[in-house]
Fold:
Amino acid sequence: MTAVPDPVPAPLRPAAGAPAAARAETAARSVRRLFGGRALGVPGTLLGAPALPRPASRRAPWHYWWQAHLLDALVDAGRRALAAGDRPAARAAARDGHRLLRGITLRSGGRVDRNSYYDDMAWLLLAVGRLAGLDRELGDRPGLDCLDAGAALLARLERGHTGDLGGGVFWNDAHDYKNTASSAPAALAFVRTHRPERADAVLTWLDDVLWDPERRVYLDGVRLVAAGSGTEVTRLDRGLHSYNAGPVLGALLELADAPGTGSVRRRELLERAGAVVEGAAGAFSREHAGAPVLTTHGGGDGGLFTGILARYLADAAGHPGLDGRVRATAAGLVAATAEALWAGRREFDPDVDFADPGTGGSGETVAVFSPDPFRPADEAQRPGVPVELSTQVQAWTVLEAAARSAER
Structure:
């Protein structure tokens, strides 16, 4: 049950020495060419294969939330093309986005809300909302597929937001753990769907329960260990993950700008957003080539974490309500991480076995990016070891974030 190659791959062009937008386009075209295919062989659909080489088995692992971030990256590409005046490319990206949503729906058994994890559904809701927004920017009505999926996903998220454990959003259907991973993207989704009170309640819970003021980071979550006789026994999970900072940052910024947010609350939200940027710089970066570069979390699900943080750091870099030093910190992290990933890429001819270390980039090439910005792909992504979709979508997301930041 995996993607099969699309018989008509997107055109590819080399982009050596390219500026930020062309680098992002190289990543977009590479991921589309190397990983894109039909869902279960059905025409008019799209899914990203979980790895390259593509798994031979039709029982390949299903990573719902990887596809959600692939959809977000397609919207990034479409908006970048639209900003450059290339409406045909923007429409092509939107068309691929709708094909991907159909593929996700098909692979999910016909309903995108058939998922046990609230964070997975929150990510897809955010991406679907952005795809509908791209439709509008192109002068079209949002697709019915977006509207139907969005309504179903929002209803599930609202059911996951309860007063248990003081508030916040459950992680999954077990309903015994509430965490930043679910609560943060849910809060952002609530802002974008015009539910500011619900978003504010989730952010307040995050601040009260999971904020670490010394390190200026959000801890992972709080687990229900036991309940009974009117009492609850909980345990705090103090784990730190870069992706938790990203959607909290986005929710803080967007709620601050939402109609009806008072001046006092807006100031509080922007102050916390600035602290999140500074905390991320301290907890999730280290020096490389003379600049702080975001650290990553390997492969698998962790292969997406830092790309998510970079997406929202780019938003912070352009937000006029933040202190100039904070904006510069955010922009610097995104730019330096993108530069490191670009410098460490490996380009090759996609029509030649990519596992052959002697393959050169003659003519049209694609790129594979390292899962670790501190090590080049030739070292971190050794020949013969599968390249995971998550790490490549992460690099694409970082490069798109850098392109947006460079435009400002």
User: Anything to note?
Assistant: The two ends are 42 Å apart (CA to CA). The first strand starts at residue 4 and ends at 5.
